[in-house]
Amino acid sequence: MNAWSAEEFEAQLRSIGEKRYHHLHPFNERMHAGLLTEEEFRGWVRNRFYYQVNLPVKDAFILTKLPGREDRRQWIQRIIDHDGRTGDEGGIENWVRLGEAVGLTRRELFDGDSVLPGVRFAVDAYVDFCQRKPWLEAVASALTELFAPGLLSRRIADVQQHYPWIAPEGLEYFRARLTQQPKDIAHLLDLVINHAESREQQDACVRALEFKCDVLWSLLDSVELAYSKKP
Ligand SMILES: O=C(O)c1cc(C(=O)O)c2c(n1)C(=O)C(=O)c1cc(C(=O)O)[nH]c1-2
């Protein structure tokens, strides 16, 4: 089979988000409609924290495989964005602020034992994928970030509107990501579109992105099952 053109390949990748990204998950839709209880919101924040702390870990695995120095220099910034530096504490610390704003302690957030089994399973599968797969597929799996900015801006507005018990400082994580994400997205697209030359490689990238959508979807399935009371 012939390789897709760059435009067609990008369109194929983007179409996955319209069908499978976690903005469509019922738990996420209830969050935006203002229907989550405090317990459900806390459950989401606590379990998503396990995803957050693992982002720099999977990015470190990918870093070891990137072939070029210039790409490694850019990729390192992703790890710093989450792990932070002295004086600029980074995304994980911002997520701790969100946790505190919803009534969780730092200790509860870092207590790995309280993570739901399904969340651990999904996030560990993502880290394992990035460790095992060729760098192109591991990078492609991060392309869910393409679909995040629209969701993040909606989340900031809707959480402020519907959950006044959450202090606005708690949402700093999402505001910071909106500034950081455009450069991440440009780099991801550059790496994937320009290096997937054959149709086989392009198909593998599409499958990697589908897999990652499943990771995010499963995370919300688990949170919903554990925290949402059935009528
Ligand atoms: O809040 C969200 O909905 C959301 C989703 C995603 C994503 O699509 O994986 C990421 C983020 N946020 C995010 O903040 C972030 O730093 C991030 C990194 C990655 C990744 O896979 O490398 N995804 C995401």
TrEMBL record:
Which family is this sequence assigned to? Belongs to the PqqC family.
Instruction: Provide the Thiaminase-2/PQQC domain boundaries.
Output: 11-221
Q: What is its EC number?
A: 1.3.3.11
Concerning Pfam families, the annotation shows: TENA_THI-4 (PF03070)
The record's GO molecular-function terms, alphabetically, read:
pyrroloquinoline-quinone synthase activity
Q: What is this protein called?
A: Pyrroloquinoline-quinone synthase
Q: Which UniProt keywords apply?
A: Oxidoreductase, PQQ biosynthesis
Q: Name one GO biological process term.
A: pyrroloquinoline quinone biosynthetic process
Gene of this entry: pqqC
